[in-house]
Design brief:
Elements (H helix, E strand, L loop, with lengths): L1 H20 L3 E8 L2 H8 L1 H7 L3 E8 L1 H13 L7 E4 L3 H7 L20 H5 L2 E2 L2 E2 L2 E6 L1 E6 H6 L10 H11 L20 H11 L16 H17 L9 H9 L5 E5 L3 H4 L11 E5 L13 E6 L7 H11 L2 H11 L10 H4 L2 H6 L3 H10 L23 H16 L5 H18 L5
Parallel strand pairs: 1-2, 1-3
Antiparallel strand pairs: 3-10, 4-5, 6-10, 7-8, 7-9
Length: about 450
């Protein structure tokens, strides 16, 4: 009896040892509800098979909610997440606050030098990488070639805003629920203000002059916002002020948008016949310009980072290395095809003949990324870095407030002039309180 009891206790203790050896480290990952991230979650078994001692729990959130939650968590040292999905705006600011772990444990075969220079530089502080890009993007025009042909229109590779507006009005068929253009209207510094800031750059506008004085009372901003509101009222879908990236993607894929100016990462979704009813009818062009030397394209990377103070930094870096590696691109290609790999991160991807052949948008994406200059984002000189954002801590709150005002103008809740006046007043107050303006 004693022998049997001893054997049972021995077996139990072996099981206990086995259970601590496997799945004893659980990583909680906060991410955004974009298609590429959803796909990553579906492929996590590959990571677990290679790392049986690490388990993964996902917290998937809408873009604005994600930003709010991860900012609150890291600023208060809440410790809720082991890996954060953050963008090119947050990384340098948070790294300088010592809120992020430098990613020096990605492994010898990670090949950090293969990361696109334009993307890598925005995630690097003092020579150290603080986030690894899951996908990189600029913005461009996606359009329905069949609707253009029917209207007798030819899309230039580098269209002007005047051409875009004229074409949008011509291909609109509201009775048939086809709208000439879909643009972001949902309030948020990374939603409508990402689009509108990039657009305003091409119109010659800027957030602040060299002395940090807000510029919403200048003619360039009035021209930008009037053009945007009039265009969406004439040729946009109903309820445009509620539409962000995902809402416009759904509209485009269901055949309701003639044009959509948004993130280059959307290209693989709008050309995927499993997701898009117009997959074989989509063309691409550079983001529009006003002839002033700047296109309305942005520069962004959704990246994975480890919050400082994490007790699981080593395991977190193993996951980040897996999710942003060349091998991950090969894994997606083997499951979903080369056209669906996360774009905009690695030089080797754009040199890959299989990718070039499968992704008709590859060259336009790379050209758009390389043409965005965060250090000279505007026609006139500015004291800040950032294309579709201003790389100062105050921008997150200020950008969202201004985004709410501009979304209100689009919805008809206030005039463009009122929205701009309130934006000027709010920005002046915030910048004075923060010490930028004396």
């Amino acid at each position: 009896m004693k022998t049997m009891l001893g054997a049972l206790l021995g077996a139990v203790s072996l099981l206990a040892v086995g259970s601590t050896a496997y799945a004893q480290t659980k990583l909680t990952i906060a991410t955004v509800n974009n298609g590429d991230m959803i796909r990553m979650q579906g492929l996590t078994d590959d990571f677990k098979a290679k790392n049986p001692d690490i388990d993964v729990e996902w917290v998937t959130l809408e873009e604005n909610v994600l930003r709010q939650k991860v900012t609150t968590d890291i600023a208060t040292k809440g410790g809720q997440f082991d890996i954060l999905t953050i963008g090119t705006y947050e990384v340098p600011i948070w790294a300088k606050q010592n809120w992020l772990v430098a990613l020096d444990g990605l492994g010898a075969d990670y090949d950090v030098d293969d990361l696109l220079p334009a993307i890598r530089s925005g995630l690097t502080v003092d020579g150290k990488l603080y986030a690894a890009p899951f996908y990189g993007e600029s913005s461009m025009v996606m359009y329905r070639k069949d609707l253009f042909e029917k209207a007798g229109l030819t899309m230039p590779d580098a269209p002007t805003w005047e051409f875009i507006a004229d074409a949008a009005r011509k291909i609109t068929d509201k009775d048939g629920e086809v709208y000439g253009i879909c643009l972001r209207g949902k309030a948020g510094w990374g939603e409508n203000m990402a689009f509108l800031t990039a657009m305003s750059n091409s119109f010659g506008a800027r957030w602040f002059d060299e002395s940090w004085q807000p510029q919403f009372d200048q003619a360039e901003w009035k021209d930008t916002l009037n053009f945007y509101v009039d265009l969406l009222n004439d040729a946009g879908p109903p309820g445009a002020s509620s539409n962000g990236f995902n809402e416009n993607l759904a509209l485009f894929n269901s055949g309701k948008c003639g044009m959509w100016i948004d993130a280059t990462v959307a290209a693989s979704f709008v050309t995927n016949p499993k997701e898009s009813s117009v997959a074989d009818k989509v063309g691409f062009a550079l983001a529009p310009n006003k002839g002033l030397g700047k296109n309305a394209n942005w520069l962004w990377a959704w990246s994975l980072a480890v919050p400082a103070g994490s007790q699981k930094a080593d395991a977190a870096q193993k996951f980040i290395s897996w999710a942003t590696s060349k091998d991950y691109l090969d894994l997606v290609a083997s499951k979903e095809g080369w056209a669906n790999v996360p774009p905009g991160t690695r030089t080797s991807l754009y040199a890959n003949p299989e990718y070039q052949s499968a992704a008709p948008f590859a060259k336009m994406t790379l050209d758009s990324i390389n043409s965005a200059d965060p250090t000279k984002p505007t026609v006139k000189p500015v004291p800040y870095v950032g294309v579709q954002f201003v790389a100062i801590p105050e921008f997150q709150g200020l950008g969202t407030t201004v985004g709410q005002l501009f979304s209100g103008a689009l919805a008809g809740q206030m005039t463009v002039d009122d929205a701009l006046a309130q934006a000027q007043q709010t920005a002046t107050r915030e910048m004075t309180e923060a010490g930028y303006i004396q």
